[in-house]
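MSMEG_0565 family glycosyltransferase structure dump, as promised
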Amino acid sequence: MNGTRMRIALFTHSVNPRGGVVHTLELGRALYEAGQDVTIFAPSVGGAPMFRASPCRVVLAPAAAHGNDTVTMVQTRIDALKAALLEEGGAAFDVLHAQDGIGGNALAELREAGVIRGFVRTVHHLDAFDNPRLSAWQRRAYAEADTVLCVSDTWTRKLRDEFGIAASTVNNGVDIARFQHVEGADLCNGLGLNGEPVVLAVGGIEQRKNTLQLLEAFALLRQTHARAQLVIAGGASLLDHDAYTQRFAARATELGFRIGKHAPIVVTGPLEDAAIPALMQRADVISMMSLCEGFGLVVLEALAAGAPVVVSQIEPFTGYLDERVCCWAQPADAASIADGLRRALHERGGIDFEHAVPDLLARFSWRESAHRHIALYGNHVQRIMQPLGA
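structure tokens r here:
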């Protein structure tokens, strides 16, 4: 470590656009702009590039294809990250920071082998796995970390109260400029967005995203907004959501909704990086009806794009949002969600875009997040550099 400049390695699970990967790239950029030496490690199948350019050095760890076997996929990516770090020389970094369980297990194994002294792990949220090996991997990734961070006070409390883990909260940020003054009319037209209004949900079709309940709410909304269109964007996930997606498609058919371009429901799948800001600016309302989130960065992105947002009235959202900046709805109640969508469509839900929204967005900057990380990294380095056995 040279003065206050550290060599920092950030580990993420994929090169595809998911929340944790976005967090890694944006944090890396902010740390770089703060004068840190940052390298980002990510597994890559078939040499696929990182979905968004970064000013940081990016190491793509070659990972074999895995089909639909989640356990094999996780093991393959753990091994890929371990090999990449060994090749780069793990001891050359002051801070090794995993953003997910895959990176966390790679670092835990190297720590157990005596290759590295310790590591940092950020917990965004925890999943409930039926497979015992996946559950064990998830726990090891935070239980064996020397420093644990969370992206919201909600998860910091959960780790303390339910697992006895002392964590520190380091909030997400939002790149406001990225979601303003976007040129994307051609892209939106190409996807067949012709609804009046357009309801947008980001993150694909997943149980955690509560997409089936949103579908039921959309059916109720169409009773008063006959030309409404539901757009579900993104969905580049490592986990298998096929069964849930099939249930969604079957229920859409029962409700009489086609899925496709210019249809009542448009499912885009993974999109190019510029597409999400363009879709957010095109949308009349954005739905964030998740049942479980670490923070819910989409909410801040939607507000930065100037779109009213309907949000699950549960933690972590209730920890940083209020009725001045969003329309609340109960995620288990389709009628509540439909009512929230209608309120958001009427005079933009009364959301205070002039004062309350700018104040909220100003509280969450990647610059401030980077400074908080740097301070915690300093404490982490001092702790792990104590003489062994001290």
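The longest helix spans residues 70-88.
lmk if u need the other ones
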